[in-house]
Amino acid sequence: MNTFAGKVALVTGGSSGIGRxxxxxxxxxxxxxxxxxxRERESKETVDMIxxxxxxxxxxxxxxxxxxxxxxxxxQTVKEYGxxxxxxxxxxxxxIMARMIRTTEEIFDEVVDTNFKGVWLSMKYEIPVMLKQGGxxxxxxxxxxxxxxxxxxxxYSGSKHAIVAISNAAATEYGxxxxxxxxxxxxxxxxxxxxxxxxxxxxxxxxQSSVPLKRMGExxxxxxxxxxxxxxxxxxxxxxxxxxxxxxxx
Length: 250
Ligand SMILES: NC(=O)c1ccc[n+]([C@@H]2O[C@H](COP(=O)([O-])OP(=O)(O)OC[C@H]3O[C@@H](n4cnc5c(N)ncnc54)[C@H](OP(=O)(O)O)[C@@H]3O)[C@@H](O)[C@H]2O)c1
What we know:
This protein is of the alpha/beta class and 250 residues long. Helices cover 46% and strands 16% of the residues. Strands 3-2-1-4-5-6-7 form a seven-stranded parallel beta sheet, sandwiched between helices. Helix 5 (154-174) links the parallel strand 5 (136-141) and strand 6. The mean pLDDT is 98. The site of NADP nicotinamide-adenine-dinucleotide phosphate has 29 residues, from helix 1.
Protein backbone atom coordinates (compact mmCIF):
# COMPACT_ATOMS: atom_id res chain seq x y z
CA MET A 1 0.00 0.00 0.00
CA ASN A 2 2.76 2.45 -0.88
CA THR A 3 0.39 4.83 -2.69
CA PHE A 4 2.35 7.85 -1.51
CA ALA A 5 5.92 6.54 -1.64
CA GLY A 6 8.32 9.45 -2.20
CA LYS A 7 5.64 12.00 -1.40
CA VAL A 8 5.46 14.50 1.45
CA ALA A 9 2.12 15.19 3.15
CA LEU A 10 1.47 18.08 5.53
CA VAL A 11 -1.47 17.83 7.94
CA THR A 12 -2.54 20.87 9.96
CA GLY A 13 -4.47 20.03 13.11
CA GLY A 14 -2.65 16.71 13.21
CA SER A 15 -2.62 16.56 17.02
CA SER A 16 -6.04 14.87 17.30
CA GLY A 17 -9.24 13.75 15.63
CA ILE A 18 -9.58 13.76 11.87
CA GLY A 19 -6.09 15.22 11.35
CA ARG A 20 -4.41 12.52 13.44
CA UNK A 21 -6.36 9.69 11.72
CA UNK A 22 -5.42 11.09 8.30
CA UNK A 23 -1.76 11.68 9.18
CA UNK A 24 -1.49 8.04 10.28
CA UNK A 25 -3.05 6.79 7.04
CA UNK A 26 -0.66 8.94 4.95
CA UNK A 27 2.25 7.49 6.95
CA UNK A 28 1.04 3.91 6.56
CA UNK A 29 0.82 4.45 2.81
CA UNK A 30 4.41 5.60 2.43
CA UNK A 31 4.28 9.40 2.65
CA UNK A 32 6.65 11.35 4.88
CA UNK A 33 4.26 13.27 7.10
CA UNK A 34 4.50 16.69 8.73
CA UNK A 35 2.18 17.07 11.71
CA UNK A 36 1.38 20.72 12.47
CA UNK A 37 -0.65 21.97 15.44
CA UNK A 38 -0.22 23.94 18.68
CA ARG A 39 -0.23 21.11 21.25
CA GLU A 40 3.21 19.54 21.44
CA ARG A 41 2.51 16.38 23.47
CA GLU A 42 -0.49 15.29 21.38
CA SER A 43 1.26 16.10 18.10
CA LYS A 44 4.31 14.08 19.14
CA GLU A 45 1.96 11.21 19.99
CA THR A 46 0.70 11.33 16.40
CA VAL A 47 4.31 11.31 15.15
CA ASP A 48 5.04 8.27 17.35
CA MET A 49 1.94 6.47 16.07
CA ILE A 50 3.09 7.02 12.49
CA UNK A 51 6.58 5.77 13.31
CA UNK A 52 5.13 2.71 15.08
CA UNK A 53 3.19 1.94 11.91
CA UNK A 54 6.50 2.01 9.98
CA UNK A 55 6.21 5.54 8.61
CA UNK A 56 8.29 8.68 8.80
CA UNK A 57 7.00 11.88 10.41
CA UNK A 58 7.93 15.10 12.17
CA UNK A 59 6.18 17.79 14.18
CA UNK A 60 6.25 21.52 13.49
CA UNK A 61 4.53 23.54 16.19
CA UNK A 62 2.18 25.91 14.41
CA UNK A 63 -0.66 28.26 15.13
CA UNK A 64 -2.39 28.57 11.75
CA UNK A 65 -3.69 32.04 12.64
CA UNK A 66 -0.16 33.49 12.60
CA UNK A 67 1.46 34.11 9.22
CA UNK A 68 5.07 33.75 10.41
CA UNK A 69 4.28 30.36 11.98
CA UNK A 70 2.52 29.09 8.85
CA UNK A 71 5.46 30.27 6.73
CA UNK A 72 7.80 28.45 9.13
CA UNK A 73 5.65 25.28 8.88
CA UNK A 74 6.07 25.18 5.12
CA UNK A 75 9.75 26.17 5.26
CA GLN A 76 10.52 23.42 7.79
CA THR A 77 8.69 20.88 5.62
CA VAL A 78 10.82 21.74 2.60
CA LYS A 79 14.03 22.02 4.68
CA GLU A 80 13.61 18.54 6.24
CA TYR A 81 11.83 16.60 3.51
CA GLY A 82 12.76 18.57 0.38
CA UNK A 83 9.26 19.00 -1.05
CA UNK A 84 5.53 19.30 -0.41
CA UNK A 85 3.14 17.17 -2.47
CA UNK A 86 -0.03 17.02 -0.39
CA UNK A 87 -1.48 19.50 2.10
CA UNK A 88 -4.46 18.62 4.27
CA UNK A 89 -5.48 21.97 5.78
CA UNK A 90 -7.63 20.60 8.55
CA UNK A 91 -6.99 22.74 11.65
CA UNK A 92 -10.21 24.23 12.93
CA UNK A 93 -12.31 25.21 15.91
CA UNK A 94 -16.03 25.06 16.55
CA UNK A 95 -16.33 28.08 18.79
CA ILE A 96 -19.52 27.94 20.82
CA MET A 97 -22.98 27.27 19.48
CA ALA A 98 -24.92 30.48 20.01
CA ARG A 99 -27.50 32.59 18.29
CA MET A 100 -26.00 35.24 16.04
CA ILE A 101 -26.83 38.15 18.33
CA ARG A 102 -25.30 36.39 21.33
CA THR A 103 -22.03 35.55 19.61
CA THR A 104 -19.15 37.68 20.88
CA GLU A 105 -16.56 39.42 18.74
CA GLU A 106 -13.88 37.27 20.43
CA ILE A 107 -15.59 34.07 19.31
CA PHE A 108 -16.08 35.46 15.82
CA ASP A 109 -12.38 36.35 15.56
CA GLU A 110 -11.21 32.98 16.93
CA VAL A 111 -13.42 30.96 14.59
CA VAL A 112 -12.84 33.02 11.46
CA ASP A 113 -9.11 33.46 12.09
CA THR A 114 -8.56 29.74 12.66
CA ASN A 115 -10.89 28.27 10.08
CA PHE A 116 -10.86 30.75 7.20
CA LYS A 117 -7.68 32.78 7.66
CA GLY A 118 -5.82 29.61 8.68
CA VAL A 119 -6.73 27.87 5.42
CA TRP A 120 -5.94 30.97 3.39
CA LEU A 121 -2.56 31.42 5.07
CA SER A 122 -1.76 27.73 4.64
CA MET A 123 -2.46 27.85 0.91
CA LYS A 124 -0.61 31.16 0.56
CA TYR A 125 2.60 29.48 1.67
CA GLU A 126 1.97 25.96 0.29
CA ILE A 127 1.09 26.95 -3.26
CA PRO A 128 4.45 28.62 -4.14
CA VAL A 129 6.26 25.37 -3.23
CA MET A 130 3.87 23.35 -5.38
CA LEU A 131 4.25 25.83 -8.26
CA LYS A 132 8.01 25.37 -8.13
CA GLN A 133 7.66 21.58 -8.09
CA GLY A 134 5.14 21.51 -10.95
CA GLY A 135 2.07 20.42 -8.99
CA UNK A 136 0.43 19.19 -5.84
CA UNK A 137 -2.84 18.46 -4.08
CA UNK A 138 -4.56 20.57 -1.43
CA UNK A 139 -7.50 19.31 0.59
CA UNK A 140 -9.21 21.80 2.87
CA UNK A 141 -11.43 20.62 5.70
CA UNK A 142 -14.68 22.58 5.62
CA UNK A 143 -17.79 20.91 7.06
CA UNK A 144 -21.31 19.93 6.13
CA UNK A 145 -21.93 23.37 7.69
CA UNK A 146 -19.95 24.73 4.73
CA UNK A 147 -22.69 23.70 2.29
CA UNK A 148 -25.73 23.88 4.54
CA UNK A 149 -26.38 25.57 7.86
CA UNK A 150 -28.28 25.35 11.13
CA UNK A 151 -29.43 27.47 14.03
CA UNK A 152 -26.75 28.69 16.47
CA UNK A 153 -24.03 27.92 13.95
CA UNK A 154 -23.83 31.16 11.97
CA UNK A 155 -20.18 32.07 12.46
CA TYR A 156 -18.83 28.51 12.20
CA SER A 157 -21.01 27.92 9.16
CA GLY A 158 -19.90 31.20 7.59
CA SER A 159 -16.23 30.31 8.13
CA LYS A 160 -16.77 26.90 6.54
CA HIS A 161 -18.70 28.27 3.53
CA ALA A 162 -15.69 30.55 3.08
CA ILE A 163 -13.39 27.50 2.99
CA VAL A 164 -15.47 25.92 0.20
CA ALA A 165 -15.38 29.22 -1.71
CA ILE A 166 -11.64 29.79 -1.35
CA SER A 167 -10.94 26.16 -2.27
CA ASN A 168 -12.89 26.57 -5.49
CA ALA A 169 -11.12 29.89 -6.13
CA ALA A 170 -7.73 28.21 -5.66
CA ALA A 171 -8.75 25.29 -7.90
CA THR A 172 -9.67 27.81 -10.59
CA GLU A 173 -6.48 29.86 -10.20
CA TYR A 174 -3.97 27.01 -9.99
CA GLY A 175 -5.50 24.09 -11.93
CA UNK A 176 -3.43 25.10 -14.97
CA UNK A 177 -0.34 24.71 -12.79
CA UNK A 178 -1.27 21.10 -12.00
CA UNK A 179 -2.42 21.87 -8.47
CA UNK A 180 -5.69 20.21 -7.52
CA UNK A 181 -7.69 21.81 -4.70
CA UNK A 182 -10.81 20.38 -3.06
CA UNK A 183 -12.86 20.91 0.09
CA UNK A 184 -14.30 18.15 2.22
CA UNK A 185 -17.49 18.44 4.24
CA UNK A 186 -17.73 16.03 7.18
CA UNK A 187 -20.89 15.63 9.22
CA UNK A 188 -20.78 14.67 12.90
CA UNK A 189 -17.55 12.84 13.58
CA UNK A 190 -16.44 11.33 16.91
CA UNK A 191 -13.69 13.77 17.91
CA UNK A 192 -12.97 16.32 20.62
CA UNK A 193 -15.14 18.76 18.70
CA UNK A 194 -18.32 16.73 19.25
CA UNK A 195 -17.59 15.70 22.86
CA UNK A 196 -20.21 18.07 24.23
CA UNK A 197 -22.90 16.81 21.87
CA UNK A 198 -22.06 13.19 22.69
CA UNK A 199 -22.24 13.94 26.43
CA UNK A 200 -25.85 15.15 26.18
CA UNK A 201 -28.48 12.84 27.69
CA UNK A 202 -30.47 12.76 24.45
CA UNK A 203 -27.40 12.49 22.17
CA UNK A 204 -28.48 9.15 20.71
CA UNK A 205 -31.94 10.41 19.85
CA UNK A 206 -30.50 13.58 18.23
CA UNK A 207 -28.05 11.57 16.14
CA GLN A 208 -30.60 8.93 15.12
CA SER A 209 -33.08 11.58 13.98
CA SER A 210 -30.55 13.83 12.20
CA VAL A 211 -28.28 11.36 10.44
CA PRO A 212 -29.82 9.04 7.84
CA LEU A 213 -27.12 6.43 8.55
CA LYS A 214 -28.16 6.77 12.22
CA ARG A 215 -24.70 7.16 13.72
CA MET A 216 -21.74 9.50 13.99
CA GLY A 217 -18.77 8.95 11.74
CA GLU A 218 -15.32 7.80 12.82
CA UNK A 219 -12.31 10.05 12.04
CA UNK A 220 -10.90 7.18 9.93
CA UNK A 221 -13.97 7.33 7.66
CA UNK A 222 -13.14 10.95 6.82
CA UNK A 223 -9.45 10.09 6.48
CA UNK A 224 -10.31 7.50 3.81
CA UNK A 225 -11.90 10.21 1.67
CA UNK A 226 -8.88 12.49 2.09
CA UNK A 227 -6.56 9.64 1.12
CA UNK A 228 -8.55 8.98 -2.04
CA UNK A 229 -8.71 12.67 -2.98
CA UNK A 230 -4.94 13.00 -2.46
CA UNK A 231 -4.16 9.92 -4.55
CA UNK A 232 -3.70 9.61 -8.30
CA UNK A 233 -7.02 7.73 -8.36
CA UNK A 234 -8.58 11.21 -8.07
CA UNK A 235 -6.41 12.71 -10.81
CA UNK A 236 -9.32 14.47 -12.57
CA UNK A 237 -10.90 15.79 -9.38
CA UNK A 238 -10.38 19.49 -8.69
CA UNK A 239 -12.78 21.92 -7.04
CA UNK A 240 -15.98 20.91 -5.31
CA UNK A 241 -17.11 20.07 -1.81
CA UNK A 242 -17.01 16.38 -0.93
CA UNK A 243 -19.60 15.42 1.65
CA UNK A 244 -18.86 12.66 4.16
CA UNK A 245 -21.78 13.01 6.56
CA UNK A 246 -23.77 9.77 6.67
CA UNK A 247 -26.38 11.61 4.62
CA UNK A 248 -26.83 14.49 7.06
CA UNK A 249 -27.32 18.04 5.82
CA UNK A 250 -27.71 17.28 2.12
N1 LIG B 1 -15.86 16.53 14.36
C1 LIG B 1 -16.80 16.94 13.55
O1 LIG B 1 -17.97 16.57 13.71
C2 LIG B 1 -16.45 17.82 12.38
C3 LIG B 1 -17.42 18.02 11.38
C4 LIG B 1 -17.11 18.82 10.29
C5 LIG B 1 -15.88 19.42 10.17
N2 LIG B 1 -14.95 19.22 11.16
C6 LIG B 1 -13.66 19.89 11.00
O2 LIG B 1 -12.64 18.95 11.13
C7 LIG B 1 -11.43 19.63 11.51
C8 LIG B 1 -10.74 18.82 12.59
O3 LIG B 1 -11.54 18.79 13.76
P1 LIG B 1 -11.77 17.48 14.63
O4 LIG B 1 -13.20 17.15 14.54
O5 LIG B 1 -10.76 16.45 14.28
O6 LIG B 1 -11.57 18.04 16.12
P2 LIG B 1 -10.25 18.16 17.02
O7 LIG B 1 -9.82 16.82 17.47
O8 LIG B 1 -10.60 19.18 18.03
O9 LIG B 1 -9.16 18.71 16.02
C9 LIG B 1 -8.96 20.08 15.76
C10 LIG B 1 -7.53 20.24 15.33
O10 LIG B 1 -7.32 21.58 14.93
C11 LIG B 1 -6.13 22.04 15.57
N3 LIG B 1 -6.19 23.49 15.75
C12 LIG B 1 -7.17 24.24 16.30
N4 LIG B 1 -6.81 25.53 16.31
C13 LIG B 1 -5.57 25.59 15.76
C14 LIG B 1 -4.65 26.65 15.51
N5 LIG B 1 -4.95 27.93 15.80
N6 LIG B 1 -3.48 26.35 14.92
C15 LIG B 1 -3.16 25.08 14.62
N7 LIG B 1 -3.97 24.03 14.83
C16 LIG B 1 -5.17 24.30 15.40
C17 LIG B 1 -6.10 21.30 16.90
O11 LIG B 1 -4.76 21.22 17.37
P3 LIG B 1 -4.16 22.07 18.57
O12 LIG B 1 -5.27 22.34 19.54
O13 LIG B 1 -3.10 21.17 19.11
O14 LIG B 1 -3.60 23.30 17.95
C18 LIG B 1 -6.58 19.92 16.47
O15 LIG B 1 -5.53 19.15 15.99
C19 LIG B 1 -11.87 21.04 11.93
O16 LIG B 1 -11.56 21.95 10.91
C20 LIG B 1 -13.38 20.90 12.07
O17 LIG B 1 -14.05 22.13 11.88
C21 LIG B 1 -15.20 18.43 12.25
